[in-house]
Amino acid sequence: MFTRNHFIWMAICLLLIIIGLRQLIKRRVPLRSVLAVCCVLAVFSEYIKVLSSVEMLPLSGTDGNYPFLDLGHLPFHLCSIQILFIFYARFAQASPRRDTILAFMYPTCAAGAFFALLLPSIFPSSIDISQAFTHPLAYQYFLWHCALIVLGVYIPLSGEVRLSGRYYLITCGLLTVTAFATIYLNSACSAAVYALGKPVSLDFATNFFFTMQTPIGLPLITRQQWMLYYLILHLLAYLLIGLLYLPFMKKDRARRGRRDATI
Q1: Domain that holds residue 73
Q2: Which among 72, 116, 181, 205 is placed 20 to 30 Å from 122, CA to CA?
Q3: In 3D, which of 148, 159, 154 has the Cα closest to residue 94?
């Protein structure tokens, strides 16, 4: 990360995001149409990710190889689970539940995908930075996160959901629950080495939601360090979500003030 190839990708992504948002705002595209396009992109993106990441490994007891997808590619990162929310928001009828999902998607798509572009997890865990323009996974990664940022920013601009303080609390609550669930998920997907019936090391570990390790490779040695990191991660998320919600909460408060003044 932060190499020439990475900076080139970030410049390309910035240009695509600006063009995409300008077109959506200018044409006032209905949110459901944007979600429909994202549904197609999500399916195409997952196919590219899987087919470009599958490895042929020897299968014990046979003379052949078996296609294997590394557990790290499972769709359990924050930007990957957005696929479920995108399909739900596109095909669900208008309801408070759909509004809640859209309110959750706004900051988690916009901010989550932004940090994914800033700190791309595919380098060097999946591909080398030198393959940034030659490997299909790089195109899938950067273009998918571009689409998420455009979608996330456009959700409040579309006017389909009014963001308020209530949705801020719900969004923080949902993010807290899903982040806590990844502790179980990451532990289940990791391969531990046991001695005398107790785990002593890990041969492999996933890091969905980055709840187990820092995204910048800073090592965590003790349980206290990890707990502090886990707490800081949540506090930063609450702060960032609050900053993204703030202008819309002010607008909603002003609107309610004008409405009460006319009563």
Answers
A1: 4-252
A2: 181
A3: 159
Residue the block writes with tokens 């455009």? 150
Picking from 136, 145, 123, the residue whose alpha carbon sits closest to that of residue 14 is 145
pLDDT digit string, tens, across residues 238-248: 999 999 999 99
42, 46, 49, 54 alpha-carbon torsion, rounded to 10°: 180
* Distance between CA atoms of residues 50 and 31, nearest Å: 28
How many distinct structural domains can be found in the chain?
1
- State the Cα–Cα distance between residues 145 and 116, nearest whole angstrom: 7
What is the distance between the alpha carbons of residues 107 and 237, in angstroms, rounded to a whole number? 10
pLDDT (tens digit, 9 = 90+) per residue, 205-231? Answer: 999 999 999 998 889 999 999 999 999
CA dist list (Å): 33 to 95, 140, 156: 18, 21, 15
- Please tell me the distance from the alpha carbon of residue 163 to that of residue 153, in angstroms, as a whole number: 12
- What is residue 125's predicted lDDT score, i.e. its pLDDT? 82
The pTM assigned to this predicted structure is: 0.93
Segment 42-53, tens digit of pLDDT: 999 999 999 999
Check residue 164 and report its DSSP letter.
-
Residue 22 lies in a domain: yes
Residue 48 lies in a domain: yes
**Count of residues in the chain:** 263
Q: Would you say 90 and 32 are in contact if contact means Cβ atoms under 8 Å apart?
A: yes
- For residue 31, what are the contacts with CB-CB under 8 A and spacing of at least 6? 89, 102, 154, 155, 158, 160
Closest CA to 109 of 81, 144, 149, 147: 149
Inside any domain, residue 243: yes
